[in-house]
Amino acid sequence: MLEPAAPRSVAADDPLAGVAALPGVADAVDVARRACEELRWHEAYRR
Length: 47
Prior knowledge:
The chain is mostly helical and 47 residues long. The chain has three helices and no strands. It is elongated. The mean pLDDT is 82.
């Protein structure tokens, strides 16, 4: 009988964790997210 696998950490499950940890990446992601949210509510896209 197989034993259940031990839970893996989130970082091990995320192939981009190393990139996300680089300096400036978190700030750039926040800026991009805000820009996307602004576009989402832009009048031209709400028709």
